[in-house]
Specification:
This protein is an alpha+beta fold. The protein is 35% helix and 18% strand. Strands 1, 2, 6, 7, 8, 9 and 20 form a seven-stranded mixed beta sheet that branches. Strands 14-15-16-17-13-18 form a six-stranded antiparallel beta sheet, with no helix packed on it. Strands 11-10-19-12 form a four-stranded antiparallel beta sheet.
Length: 635
């Protein structure tokens, strides 16, 4: 028999990376919040790779931190190793990646939820979500028949919703890491009217460290000095206290390939047992072998899962092949010849939603007060999930408080790009953030995430006064240094010219501005240190940001003009329309526009199937209907 269990401003279903950020944001903004999890010990679990960040994902973590989220701080606390990826490429794609202690990360995040005022962490499986009347329009029913009322609800179910594990011919209902799945909520959501689909992902085996021949592997140490994710982390203290762990690199070979191909018929993916669509950009090893038959070998990384465990993670080697086949092909890899598999690799299939049902606030357009975040929205990855959770939590709280939603556009952040891609273009497979997805990536660098988003985080209410003061002081330092560089003149000398020639750039005969020297691609701050005695003692990260802005000044200016043009299109608002009534639009455009319901011309122009000619028709329509009720251009 059902019983009334309580009421909340914001109820979050799921306590993974999306649910954590959503719940903390809502509670910190003053809303009475609850986060429900099937298993309290799985809060903040990292069931796949024991790392935070990576290419483009590091950008997301820094943006989450700049807005006042928690992932970056906790990753710094639980770090085993930090590396800046893509150093050999341009600054737009430099991305931090932290190897973390996955158990410590989970415990730290759980404790932060427990300590947060206004937030209740509850172990309960939500089996039904239903609409109600009045101030609390949503009801959540637990498996124990408790009924909670909520003003807003955030769905952050991860891979638990209808979860099913596959290892060869064996399959069974389960969430990740052998935890119970959410077996009933999916049917309730379908009955509510949400369009669900089936996706799948996977994870590699974990092997015993002592059974690996590490001496035969290529070590991969961390960076020194360590650059943290969070502006709240004391970088000096972190560098002093942390003894970084090594990761290792190995490769598959022809024998690995032979074993997989001989057993490919036993793969549930290729045997047709798995219906869900897998991630295009993070394929299983059998997918790699089948998709790239001419590739001689595939790289893998052997990574520690924590300081107090002997489990090692085989990054790049996820699989759903039977356990005996896994054992055979893992043993062909140098260093893993005698590896003991502690946990076999597996694939997991789960339910998620079509994100075209949401707007840029992550609220469902036909279900006021209902939000989605994370893998439930069709994305993959901890960082993508946390970013969406933060935005959903902020906007759920603002809805409760009668405030307008916070909408991030593509030019503001990778978070804005991620959400715009999901709600405008939809997804056909698990969405993964990549730097190539942003047309403004030179402006949306990782190094300037704080500069771009901290003022917004402060305005929202998630950035403390102390942090704001530190941010403002740092911005003043940067401004002063940029002004100094344009003012300082370096006198010619024999030593300067020797250095210039050694860097393969032309010598100087007269005084030259420091600004002009730093703009030369061959030169950096370090090269000019002996000739610039007035240079202030600024940290390396700030100097790097100044140098990037100087060297890429022309390209950045051009990209900012493109951003201004995009934002002019975003200001042309679209009212609620039945696009089948607008003559001149192609049938495909009518169908896509009615499905997505874009908020403005800019968003409409990014919908797959809507052509420039269709946009011209819409602009003519807006001009012809520019009466009192028509959308007005802002700004």
């Amino acid at each position: 028999m059902e019983y009334y269990a309580g009421e909340y401003d914001v109820a979050v279903i799921g306590a993974g990376h999306a649910g954590i950020e959503a719940a903390l944001a809502a509670a910190r903004l003053g809303c009475r919040t609850a986060v429900f999890t099937i298993n309290m010990d799985a809060v903040g679990n990292c069931p796949c790779n024991p790392s935070i960040g990576g290419t483009a994902k590091g950008h997301l973590v820094c943006e989450i931190d700049a807005l006042g989220g928690e992932m970056g701080r906790t990753a710094d606390e639980c770090m085993l190793q930090m590396r800046m990826l893509n150093r050999g490429k341009g600054p737009a794609v430099h991305s931090l990646r932290a190897q973390i202690d996955r158990r410590q990360y989970s415990m730290v995040m759980k404790h932060k939820l427990e300590l947060q005022p206004g937030l209740d962490l509850r172990q309960a499986e939500i089996v039904q979500l239903r609409r109600a009347q009045g101030e609390y329009p949503w009801q959540l029913v637990t498996r124990m028949e408790g009924v909670f009322s909520a003003k807003t609800v955030i769905l952050a179910t991860g891979t638990y919703l209808g979860g099913r594990i596959y290892v060869g011919d064996v399959s069974y209902e389960s969430g990740p890491d052998g935890i119970f799945p959410a077996a009933f909520l999916g049917q309730s959501l379908k009955e509510l009217g949400l369009r669900l689909r089936r996706f799948k992902t996977g994870t590699p085996a974990r092997v015993l460290r002592s059974s690996i021949h590490l001496e035969n592997l290529e070590p991969q140490p961390g960076d020194t000095p360590i650059i943290p994710f969070s502006a709240d982390t004391d970088a000096a203290a972190l560098n002093n206290r942390l003894q970084q762990a090594d990761c290792y690199i190995s490769w598959t070979n022809d024998e690995t390939k032979r074993i997989i191909l001989e057993n490919i018929h036993r793969s549930p993916l290729y045997g047709g047992k798995i219906e869900g669509i897998g991630p295009r950009y993070c394929p299983s090893i059998e997918d790699k072998i089948m998709r790239f038959p001419d590739k001689q070998r595939h790289q893998l990384f052997v990574e520690p899962c924590g300081r107090d465990t002997e489990e090692m993670y085989l990054q790049g080697m996820s699989s759903s092949l039977p356990e005996d086949v896994q054992l055979a092909f893992y043993h062909t890899i140098p260093g893993l010849e005698d590896a003991l598999i502690m946990r076999p690799a597996y694939a997991i299939e789960y339910d998620c939603v079509d994100p075209l049902q949401m707007d840029a606030s992550l609220e469902f357009m036909d279900f006021p007060g209902l939000y989605g975040a994370g893998q439930f929205n069709g994305s993959s990855g901890y960082e993508e999930a946390a970013a969406q959770g933060l935005v959903a939590g902020i906007n759920a709280a603002r809805r409760v408080q009668g405030k307008p939603p916070v909408l991030l556009d593509r030019a503001s952040s990778y978070i804005g790009t991620l959400i715009d891609d999901l709600v405008t273009k939809g997804v056909s497979d698990p969405y993964r953030m990549m730097t190539s997805r942003s047309e403004y990536r030179l402006v949306l660098r990782q190094d300037n995430a704080a500069e771009r988003l901290t003022p917004l985080g402060r305005e929202i209410g998630l950035i403390s006064q102390e942090r704001w003061q530190r941010f403002c002081a740092r911005q003043e330092q940067k401004k002063a240094e940029l002004e100094r560089i344009k003012r300082v003149v370096i006198a010619p000398s024999e030593a300067l010219n020797r250095m210039l020639v050694s860097r393969e750039t032309s010598p100087v005969e007269t005084g030259v501005r420091l600004y002009d020297l730093l703009r030369r691609p061959q030169l950096g701050y370090a090269d000019l240190a002996d000739f610039d005695p007035e240079r202030p003692d600024l940290d390396a990260a700030l100097l790097e940001q100044v140098e990037i802005e100087l060297k890429y000044e022309g390209y950045i200016t051009r990209q900012q003009r493109q951003i201004a043009q995009m934002r002019r299109m975003e200001q042309k608002k679209l009212p609620a329309l039945d696009y089948t009534t607008i003559s001149g639009l192609r049938l495909e455009a009518q169908e896509k526009l009615n499905r997505v319901r874009p908020a403005n011309i800019g968003q409409a122009s990014r919908i797959s199937g809507v052509s420039p000619a269709d946009i011209s028709v819409l602009l003519i329509y807006l001009h012809a209907h520019s009466g009192a009720d028509a959308p007005q251009e802002e700004g």
